[in-house]
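<goal> How does this chain fold?
<sample>
Here is the protein in question

***
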Amino acid sequence: MSDNPLTSPPISDRVREAMAISLRGCDELLPQDDWLKKLAKCEATGVPLRIKLGLDPTAPDIHIGHTVVLNKMRQLQDLGHTVIFLIGDFTTLIGDPSGRNSTRPPLTAEQIQINAETYKTQAFKVLDPGKTELRYNSEWSDALGARGMIQLAAKYTVARMMERNDFHERFHAGTSISVHEFLYPLMQGYDSVALKSDIELGGTDQKFNLLMGRHLQQEYGQEPQCILTMPLLEGLDGVEKMSKSKNNYVGITEDANTMFAKVLSISDELMWRWYTLLSFKSMAEIDALRAEVAGGRNPKDAKVMLAKEITARFHSAAAADAAEADFIHRSKGGVPDDIPEVALTGAPMGIAALLKAAGLAPSSSEGNRLIDGGGVRVDSSVVSDKGLKLQAGTYVVQVGKRKFARVTLA
C-alpha cells in the first residue's frame, strides 16, 4: 500500500482468530496482508474497523442465498467491529450492470422505497440492529450534483472500465451499453469514500465494483479498503446458484414448515457447504459434527440441526420445533391440522381437473404428470389412475410432501 502504508503492530492469537473468521467460506480476501494489519491495528488502538456491505433493493424480498454475505457481516460484527448496512437507493436508480448482457431497467423511486423497507426488516434477521449503522447512499450521492459527478468520472478511464467482463463482452458482441451504466461502479466506489470503509463485502460478481472503491479511496487520499467476496450459494438442487427463477430457493419470508422441509431436502454433501456459509456454529463445532457423521452418525441428524437453526433464525425456536414435528407427522403419512379448505362444483370431476381447480397443480397436464410420478394421494391413498373421477363428497387431496387441500366437491 504505497500511498498510506499501514504500520505493523504485533499479530496476537486474537488477531489470528479474527483472520480465520474473516476467511471462513470466503472466495477472496484482498489483500490479506493489509487486512491482517488492519485487524492488528484495531486491537492495538481499540478503534473498531468499518465493515461495509451495500445492497440495492431491486426486488421486494431476499432468499437465504442473499444472507451468505450478511452472515459474514454478523461474524465480523460479533468481533466488535462497526458494520454498515448500506441500502443503495441512489445506485438502484442507475441499475447495476454486473453480470448483465443487457441494460438493467431502473426502478421507480416508489418501488425502491418499498423494497428498501423490506430489505431492512429482513437484514435485521441476521444482523444485530442495535449495533448496525444503517445508511442510504442518496445521502451523499444526491449532494454530488453535476459538477461532483463530472469530477468523480475524471478519476477513472474508459479503457479501465472496458476491462470489466460484462462491458467487454457486450461491446464485442455489438450489444448496447448506456453511458449511465459506467456511473454505477463509480457511484458504488464513491460510497466507500463517503463511509471511510476498511473493508467492503460482496458476492463474487461484485469484485470489479469493490476494487473501484479501493481505487477511489486512494484517489481521495484515504487508506484503501480491503475487499472480501463471498461465493454464490448453490440452491436446493446443489448445482445451480440459488434463484427464484430456477425455483431452487428458500425464501426467508416463507412459512416455518416450508423452510424446514426445504432445508431438509438438500443432499448430504451440500449440507456441509450450507453449514459453512449459513450456520452461526463455529468451524470447530461443524468439524466435530462432520467427524461424528463420518464415524457413523446418521447425516440426517446434522441436517435436522441445520434446518432448525435456519428456521429459528427467521421465525423462532418454537416455530422450528413445530416445523420438525410437522415434518415427522407428514413423513408418517399424517395430514397437517391446518390445511386449505376448497369448495368446488362439477361432480363427478376428473382427478387432473380437480388438482388444477383446487390450486394443487398449475394445469391438468401437470396434474397427470404428478399422477404418473406417484405424487398424488386422495384420502392417503396413492392415485395411479389418471381417469379417476371423484363423486360429490369431501376429500383430503395431497400433492408431493407439502401440498394439501380439503376439497368439498358438489
In short: The chain has a mean pLDDT of 90.
